[in-house]
Amino acid sequence: MEHLFVTAGGSIRERWRQAFPCAKLATRIGDIGAATSRARGIVWLDLSATAPADRAAQVADAVAFGWPVVVMSAAPGESEAFQFLNLGAVGYCHFGAAPEQLREIALVVEHGGFWMPPELMQRFLALSLRVVPPAAPSEPVLNELTSRELMVAEQVAHGASNREIAQTLNITERTVKAHLSAIFEKLSVRDRVQLALAMNNIPTYSTVN
């Protein structure tokens, strides 16, 4: 899968290159087609230097290309995150995110999920639970999980990040990720948002807009 960074800065930042050594560059959304060489990929749209009034239009134009779009912001915020997700973006993060986090985002997106910073994820889940009161999880479904996987799933349902889960359960973040992969497969969910909603018996769909 190709990684194409669209940035008015004219160059790929070092952190982006560390995450994806073969990343491609476009300085304008209109150049995306000419800059790509593969049929599938992710568009990383850097809006850190874009005027607020122009951001929504740029996201919409990037989404129209047909590849999953991850928006990169200089100051990620809740309202902007939801606005861009409603426009069709599947990811939202800080433009200075660490290479490891960028790779984690890419993995989620490649598997059809969507990603936003943990603190925004927690607010999203809190809002969802206020709108649709939680009911008891389905026992037959949860019986598929091991006791430790269930502990991890319950932490996700409360909006905890991987680091917070690792600290609470006294395990490594790598182990948390391994448990999450197993949980996603067993419960047929794509990402931690769908998992959290499923754990609270909120109907989930192919994507969350």
Molecular structure report:
GO terms for molecular function: DNA binding. This is Response regulator transcription factor. Keywords: DNA-binding, Transcription, Transcription regulation. Residues 138-203 form the HTH luxR-type domain. The chain is of the alpha/beta class and 209 residues long. It has two domains: 2-115, Rossmann fold (3-Layer(aba) Sandwich), CATH 3.40.50.2300; 121-199, Winged helix-like DNA-binding domain superfamily/Winged helix DNA-binding domain (Arc Repressor Mutant, subunit A), CATH 1.10.10. It is built from eleven helices and five strands. A five-stranded parallel β-sheet has the order 2-1-3-4-5, with helices on both faces. Helix 8 crosses helix 10, helix 8 crosses helix 11 and helix 9 packs across helix 10 (173-187).
Entry summary:
This protein has 209 residues and is an alpha/beta fold. The chain has two domains: 2-115, Response regulator (Rossmann fold, 3-Layer(aba) Sandwich); 121-199, Orthogonal Bundle (Arc Repressor Mutant, subunit A).
The geometry reads as elongated
**CATH fold assignment of the largest domain:** Rossmann fold
User: What pattern of helices and strands is seen along the backbone?
Assistant: EHEHEHEHEHHHHHHH
CATH class bucket of the largest domain:
Alpha Beta
- Largest sheet report: 5 strands, parallel
